[in-house]
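Anyone else keep sequences and structure tokens together like this?

Example one:
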Amino acid sequence: MRFELAEAMAILARTPGVLRAMLGGLDQRWVASNYGPDTFSPFDVLGHLIHGEKTDWIPRARAILAHGAAQPFEPFDRYAMYAANRGRPIAELLDEFESLRAASLDALRALHLTDSDLDRPGLHPALGPVTMRQLLAMWPVHDLNHIAQICKAMAWQYGDEVGPWRAYVSILPREEAAPKNAKPTH
């Protein structure tokens, strides 16, 4: 499927509602548990998405428009959410993400990007040359990836309880790699 900005924005606009429906009002055990060492909990994912709204997508789009590939993007701290969100309630994070995403979409609309703007080059500090189109295509894919990650973290919490049905679901590892009671990360 070819990238279309309006279609990407339709996905981006839905993410806050999806996360609110999935996580709002849930017991802390659901939102704070991960699926093993070095994995994100739903709480962590939401914090990561918030950090991205502040430092990644729109700032990088503006950097492409201002500097092209002459100046690399600021590096993104994938783990900044640990310190930034410690002790905050999930409801507060959901509200913040919804507000930030609405502002990001308004900012994206205000850029009035043309097809030639979408082909403009940028420079990722680790990946090298990228285009505006690639950056903006990655944004909804990033959302969808993290929604899947939230689903995985939540599914693992009942991984030891589903018995033989484990064979029917790809979100859980097969018996030989069954979860060993993943623990909350905060």
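And example two:
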Amino acid sequence: MKRRTTETEIIRGKRILIAEDEAALREALKVLLGCDGHTIVEAADGKAACHLFTPGEFDLVITDYAMPGMNGDELARTIKVLVPTQPIIMITAYARLLCTKENPVDAILEKPFTISALRRIISAVLRSEAEAIPVED
């Protein structure tokens, strides 16, 4: 019997703002997403990401939840006031706690995650198919 696999089409060539206070994870995301042809702009925290965000400049925002100064949900709320349709993915170890209707992000990816899970959620969000629920690999 053949095993059926479903592969997510890899989205390429997007401009992505990443807000992540852990330098190693931020760099890993930059490298992995750069391999898919994305242009990455990095922010070490939510406040820095707020200063870097300009409406219409980014196809996607990826934010950590727990960051000093401004949490990812605060960043997402600020961005959604400016651009209500801005796609935002939150990556966090607290996914189960943050899956509420009050959370303004489009999807939540639970840490730790695989590159395939990240690619799937990016594809889903940019195609407006994601819900704010954890994605498990």
